[in-house]
Amino acid sequence: MFDLHNFVCKTLLSMKDSEPEYRVRKLALAWHAKDVLTAEDLAEIDSWYESEETA
User: Fold this and answer.
1) Mind spelling out the 3-state secondary structure of 5-20?
2) Which of 2, 31, 40, 48 is within CB 3.0–4.6 Å of 36 for a Cys-Cys bond?
3) pLDDT digits (tens, 9 = 90+) for 8-47
4) d(CA 7, CA 12)
5) DSSP-assigned letter for residue 35
6) Cα–Cα distance measured from residue 52 to residue 32, given in angstroms and rounded to the nearest whole number
7) pTM (2 decimals)?
8) Alpha carbons 20 and 32: distance in angstroms, whole number
9) What number of CA atoms fall less than 13 Å from residue 42's CA on the CB side?
10) Euclidean distance between CA atoms 39 and 28, whole angstroms
């Protein structure tokens, strides 16, 4: 069976290195508003960019 949550997570992960940060975050927030992503998912996405800020 198709799992929308996993599909969205994989899509966002693939966008991480090819799209600007704001686009990834905007799309993640849109899916969170639709209850597809959780707060934990958003925290994980946030961590992708926290490591870049400290580098």
Assistant:
1) HHHHHHHHHHHCCCCC
2) 31
3) 999 999 999 999 999 999 999 999 999 999 999 999 999 9
4) 9
5) T
6) 23
7) 0.86
8) 19
9) 14
10) 10
